[in-house]
Amino acid sequence: MLFFSIVDSLPLNWLFVDMNSYFASVEQELRPELRGLPVGVVPVMAESTCCIAASYEAKAFGVTTGTRVSAAREMCPGIVLVESRPVEYIEMHGKIRAAVDSVLPVHRVDSIDEMSCRLTGRQTEHDKAVALGRKVKDAIREQAGEYLKCSVGIAPNRFLAKVASDMQKPDGFVVIKKEELPERLYTLSLTDFPGIGRRMYARLRANGIGTVEELCGLSESRMGRIWESVVGKRWYALLRGEDIHEPETERKSVSHSHVLPPTQRTDEGVRAVFVNLIHKAAFRLRRLGCLTRKMTVGIDYFGDYQSWRKSIGIDLKNDTQTMIEAFMGVWNDRPRKRRPLRVSVAFIDLVPAGESTLPLLPEERKRDDVAAALDSINDKFGTNSIYYGSMHSAPDAAPLRISFTSIPDVIKPKKSLRTPGEKK
């Protein structure tokens, strides 16, 4: 009896919330006529694009994130395609976070559809942790929407709480106790763990590891050798339920991409969209208080799926004009006579602005002042109220997008620049 009493007291330190089929579920919540129907959310209404989300009704036919629209129609003839509405998803994210906060403080927002909460004191006891998990699910349903479903995972560490939230969907609730480890994980596949992607899976297979049981059977030193870093030793501890400190991750890049609609698959259209993406990415870079050492631009093409990529050195800048000029310097290097499908821009090798010396040349300071003025006007009157003329043919060609690890601010609608009573 004494043994079980000790085991029962082992703490459950983390609760993880994972919204199910988030974009599609938000559409079904806001548009009741879509409930019960197979729904695919797409970035643009075009046959050449892919689904960025699918409802569970569509998933039953095999449609998933990344399924091309043409394939989705074949797999699920009754699928309803809806165009993505990022502003709605961001606003709903705010409601969901507020609902979770009403039960437990949100420790970290992990993505647009995931967040984690640290349990403390008596909250770490099994029955109390489970009760809090139920309250979180009820709060989301009552405060955000009845059609929104989430899976909750509870475990000794945040890593395993996330794993638990993926073990039962939709509307799941899974608790992993420390005394159950690592055997409780043996039914999973290696790729069910966050952090084991295609490359890491191949490395594990090359080392003779094909199952989770084999992974958990490795010694701490062997894991370190396979991962070739201290990360392997962290995995050893995490798989055994240790609640170790997680280092803060540093942002390494800022990127934007856009699938081109048919009307902008021309040289002029592609160039305008590039400038638009640079405009947006540079704005985010300044918001984050970062400078960049390198910009990459790229075009993906139809047919043979060949791509063009170009890296450009940037001398610790974040003003839009410098980025546009750097892009124009390589624009003529692109392949010709190919049908462009998608364009992308990324700023990499980022440095906090505070770690850099201030520009000395008047021209450089002027560019920073112009960038600050653009940001101020667009903050006040709405995104793209003022922009560079080279993107004039495509100011709205690359609308707000949401990556699952970066949640932008809701874009304000444009306000009129006229004074009250002034005629058009």
Describe this structure in words.
This protein has 424 residues and is of the alpha+beta class. Helices cover 35% and strands 18% of the residues. It has helices spanning 2-8, 22-30, 56-59, 69-75, 86-101, 126-143, 158-166, 198-206, 212-216, 220-227, 231-238, 267-287, 320-328, 362-381; strands at residues 14-19, 39-42, 53-54, 80-83, 108-111, 114-118, 150-155, 173-175, 253-259, 290-301, 307-317, 340-352. The strands form three sheets. A five-stranded mixed sheet has the order 5-6-1-7-8. The protein has a four-stranded antiparallel sheet with strand order 9-12-10-11, with helices on one face. Strands 3-2-4 form a three-stranded mixed sheet. The model is unreliable at 1-8 and 409-424 (pLDDT under 50).
Distance between the termini: 83 Å
Strand order, biggest sheet? Answer: 5-6-1-7-8
Helix content: 25-40%
Major β-sheet, in short? 5 strands, mixed
Topology as H/E string? HEHEEHHEHEEHEHEHHHHEHEEHEH
